[in-house]
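Office hours follow-up: a student asked to see two folded examples consecutively, so here they are.
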Amino acid sequence: MDTINRGLSEPADDNVEAAAESRLLHVIGQTSRYIALLAAWVATSGSLYMSEALGWIPCLLCWYQRILMYPLALIAALGIVTNDRRMYRYVLVLAVPGMGMSLYHYLYQKSDFVRGLFPSSCVVGVPCSADYLNWFGGVVTIPFLALIAFTVIVLAAIASRLADDSEYAAEDAPAESNPQARVARMVIVLLIIAGVVGAFLLAAGANAQAQVAAARPATTPVSPIAVSPALLAKGKAVYESACVGCHGPAGEGVASIRPITESALLRSGTDEELIQLVRMGRRVNDPHNVSGLAMPAGGGQAGMADEDILAVIAYMRVLAQGRSD
């Protein structure tokens, strides 16, 4: 009798375990969609923060990555709200090429060999080999962050597809008709979007206040600093992190920005005048602005110290003499 009872209970236990595993996989699949949504909106909002709040002009390869990333923010949101089981297809079509583009851009920055393979792929406007962001000794740059975002989205899309069981993943199955579930998904999507966008808006506001504070008038004379190889090396590092995107690697300028060699203020202006210019930046409607492009205060780095500004001024004066060494 015990043998018979065990034989009758085993199929029931298997069914319970299979149902629990199915529910777990379904939860993983649904959660991965929200992870993709979060990554897409962080990348989208972050790129807009860099260009619109910090004044960092995107290069050509950056624009290609934006073209691939921005639609993902909308596709992921709509796919979750409508519970579209084909969402992973639409996501992978854009995210996989985005991974390749970000990886190529990162290697283009870090490898002379890659730049030599395609020397003319990014020579118009802001040079793609330069980067405003260089964290951890230059390991983390803007295309590196984009690569992480695209990779997270790709992995989340794959998990969304593989984690669903046959009942949920059948693409020909009828869509969910529960209006309460759709409203719940919509609320979660809106909360994620509002949280990400709100965080970057707060950061933009804080950056604007920091720029106003940094643009204080120079009330005391600046002590002359003896130009030395160490000072020029420091100035070159600051220039490459904050200035090269608009002024070019050798001060040749990009887009409509004139070469540094044509700057009378840089050649004959005082340190106080130049520090003030770097601190305040230059608006598009400034009568002295002939480029039509805004110069962000502090080169987009409002916390730049006077010592860093003096170092970069010394280096830029060297560039104004037609020297880049």
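And the second, which I mentioned at the end of office hours:
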Amino acid sequence: MDRDIARLDAIFPGMRPSLVRFILRIVRDVAVAEELTHDAYLRTRKALETSQPRHLEALLWQTARNLALDHIRWKKVRSGTEPLDEGVTGEQTYADPQPSAEDHAIQKDQLRVVGDALRTLPPRAQKVWVLSRVEGWPYPRIAAHLGVSPNTVFNDIKMVMALLLELRKKMDAE
């Protein structure tokens, strides 16, 4: 155990810049990345007091990654529960994650308009759109299923996209 701690102390200074950059890509905050790198070192060192890992470097990297991901999770939870106004005292209100009745009605109306527009397309283009965008099928699979070329599938998707783009422009103008 003492040998592992001595080895960690020897390798950490060389690994530290890489660990900071790695954590920084996850948390996007230099100060937090520095702090989590230090925490990863301390936690790895503490773990070495009770266990002997086969791959010390891997343990350090995994500890750093876990700390960064925990920080992101904690930040998301915290942002969803903190009041918008830090000075608010007493009863606190939180935004309802559900859309308002007006938003729901608008979305329902927009969905109806999109559905109506899609129904104006030729049946094959409708089928291609559903298989591609709803079912997630790749173009070659759709082509084989419908007995057409992948180019035909591409052209049908292009036709649908042009229709939807035009529809969006109209909806945005209103």
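Two things to take away from it. The chain has two domains: 2-81, 101-173. The mean pLDDT is 85.
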